[in-house]
Every structure is written in structure tokens, then in C-alpha cells.
Amino acid sequence: MYVDFDKLSDNARIWVYQADRPLADTEVKTVEELLKPALSQWAAHGQPLLASVNVSENRFVVIGLDEEYSLPSGCSIDDSVRTLRNVGQQLGVDFFDRSAAVQLTDESVVTISLPAIKNAVVDGQLTPDTFVFNTLVKTKAEFLTNWRIRAANSWLSRYFKQAVV
Questions:
Q1: Which among 79, 85, 11 is positioned nearest to 43, based on CA atoms?
Q2: Is the pLDDT of residue 44 over 90?
Q3: How far apart are CA 91 and CA 27, in angstroms?
Q4: In the chain, what percentage of residues exceed pLDDT 70?
Q5: Interatomic CA distance for residues 113 and 94, integer angstroms
Q6: What is the DSSP string of 14-79?
Q7: Alpha-carbon gap, residue 108 to 103, rounded angstroms
Q8: pLDDT tens digits, 58-107
Q9: Residue 24: pLDDT above 70?
Q10: Contact residues for 67 (Cβ-Cβ < 8 A; gap 6+)
Q11: pLDDT for res 162
Q12: What distance in Å separates the CA atoms of residue 149 and residue 146, rounded to the nearest whole number?
């Protein structure tokens, strides 16, 4: 069953998928229009799942699932991944990008590929105080409170330690 994202419990489980490029507003609408029916029918072992989607920053697809309502199965999670992969193919977008997503001072979102992170630190493009998007959030509450964090408080912190050495 589909529910609006704001109606999900704060304990709802979250999966964040990062697009390899910014999405146009029309593409955001398409993502939502394609995922809502899929999430409305999402089930695990015949039990309906209570789920939602939120597209953040025209870059991140956030799928939420209220596990207090019903638990997902490995197959149901795989189904959601396949659905999002199909949506990405239709739009020419890779939603499984693993680059570091950072927010610049002008509020724009850019990605830095994993091989380029060290150079971005050395060049000062990425600093401990740069805001990054915490794609590792696990719950809606964590998404609401720890979505944007300082790079020094993220998985990127190891790069600043290496730069000092």
C-alpha cells in the first residue's frame, strides 16, 4: 500500500538511491508516477507492504517502508531494486551511482567520483565542513535529522585524515 512519505512512521526503513545526474522536474514527476503504483502493489509473501517514495534535491530517490506494518523479504527488496532500475533505464539515469554527493555553498548538488575524492580534498573542493548527503541513513527519523551532514562526520572523514598525514 502506498502512503504519503510524511505519513510514514519515523521508524520506517529507508533506502536511498542516488542518480548519476540531476533530474529535471518532469523526470522527478515521472519517477514518482512510476514508483507509486509499484509501491502500492509491493508485497512480501502475499502481505502488502506500507511504503512511500520521496525524491530529494532532484537527485535522490528515497524509498520508505513501515516495517511495523509488515516486514519486507529479500525478494520484495529485489523487486523494488528491479523496478527502480527499470525506471532509470526509461529515463537514461543510473540510480545506483556511488559517487560522493556534496552540497556547494550555492546550494547546488554535485557528485565527486570515488577516484577523484582524494584530489578534491587536496584541491580544497571538499573540506571537513562541506555538507554531504548521508545516503547511509537507515530510518525516516535519521533521514529527517541527519540527511545533510558535514563531510568530517561522514564516511569521507578518512580522506581528511589521509590528507593531514
A1: 79
A2: no
A3: 7
A4: 98
A5: 14
A6: EEEEE-SSPPPHHHHHHHHHHHHHHHHT-EETTEE--EEEEEETTTEEEEEE-TTT----HHHHHH
A7: 6
A8: 999 999 999 888 888 888 888 899 999 999 999 999 999 888 888 877 78
A9: yes
A10: 11, 12, 13
A11: 62
A12: 6
Q: Which residue has the cell 522527478?
A: 28
Cell digits of residue 14: 529507508
Spell out the domain ranges in the chain.
Answer: 5-91, 100-134+146-164
Report the distance separating Cα 121 and Cα 158, nearest Å.
11
Strand partners, 43: 48
* CA gyration radius, the chain: 17
Q: List the grid coordinates of 30.
A: 515521472
